[in-house]
Amino acid sequence: MNATEEIRASRRASAFRTKADAKRYWILLASLILLGILASFGLLVYNNPVPVTSVSFLPVVRRRLFAVVTMIIAAVCQSLSTVTFQSVTNNKIITPSLLGFEALYSTIQTGTIFFFGATALINFSGVGAFVFQVTVMVAVSLCLYGWLLSGKYGNLQLMLLIGVIIGTGLRALSSFMRRLLSPSEFDILQARMFGSVNNADASYFPLAIPVVILAAVLLLAYSRRLNVLALGKDCATALGIKHQSGVIVSLVLVSILMSISTALVGPIAFYGFLVATLCYQATPTYDHKYLFPMALAIGFLMITGAYFFMHHIFNAQGVVSVIIEMFGGIVFLVVILKRGAL
To answer: Which of these, 108, 103, 118, 112, lies nearest to 182 by C-alpha position?
Structure first.
């Protein structure tokens, strides 16, 4: 090695400050993955009413496997999209929910039962309904990005503000329509307003899984550019990155993941925020190549562990999303109070 190579090697920066930080990261990541696998295995076989020797044991496991696959999809969508969204907006408080995905989902469900009746809402399922909801959510997001991020006066903060206004308006419209429903119709609708793996359908998987995998791979391949985008517009531009196009590409992938997650399991607004916040605490680096795996491991363990304990220990599977949202909301308030600002 000549002198020039020695100087370059000495100037090479690592994602971690010390080797000890890197070692702790890999140990924690491996531990979280192992715990997530154990929790998912427990969901598959624990408290199975059918004996292992019975021919009906595997069919029961297959039905439970459907729920685990749904949790994996939700964890991938929520964790990767939230970390990406917070990086491109350079804000660790806000989440993709600001763009109104949950509000649009609620409006679609409420409008269906309001205009067409309870039977139409019950029949509003299957691949067609799933594709329709995802398409509408992505289309609205693309219109928002194309309008507010392109052109000479493209402004990311203005886009977030418009997203909040649209979401607030859709929630107000949904609330108004729900007040006009009969009690029986309201009960049917309310069951879909809480995020749950029971909202998913196995027929969605052939479409959802390839799209989620493709979007996740693209985000992982885009991780180096995200490292630069997270520095802000001025720094990214100075380093030769086209900030506007980079933000649009990132937000398109975020909108696809969030649309699939919301259409698949329903609204879970604070789940992604909770996962991202814990990820930043557990990962001693800002490199997205390491943030993404940690966020995914935490998200998968959180949702599988919550379903395992609430369903098999406390016999209260229906309140899992409520518990996750409650803890997410508490963490959100703690972070805001600690920082003193958004």
So the answer is: 118
Instruction: Write down all domains in the chain, each with its CATH number in brackets.
Output: 19-339 (1.10.3470.10)
Residue 326 Cα distances to 171, 236, 275, 331, 339, angstroms: 20, 36, 13, 9, 20
The yes-or-no verdict on residue 340 having pLDDT over 70 is no
Q: H/E/C letters for each residue in 167-193?
A: HHHHHHHHHHHHHCCCHHHHHHHHCCC
Which structure tokens are listed for 230? 């997270």
pTM: predicted TM-score of the whole model, two decimal places: 0.84
Average pLDDT, the chain: 81
Rounded average pLDDT over 105-112:
86
86: exposed, middle or buried (Cβ count in 10 Å: 0-12, 13-18, 19+): buried
Of these ranges, 50-64, 75-89, 127-141, 232-246, the one predicted with the greatest mean pLDDT is: 75-89
pLDDT > 90? residue 264: no
- Beta carbons within 10 angstroms of residue 122's beta carbon: 11
Q: Cα–Cα distance between 223 and 234 in angstroms, integer?
A: 19
Kindly list the distances between the CA atom of residue 3 and the CA atoms of 6, 13, 14, 85, 152, in Å, as whole numbers in the listed order. Answer: 5, 18, 21, 42, 47
Cα(130)–Cα(121) distance, rounded to whole angstroms? 13
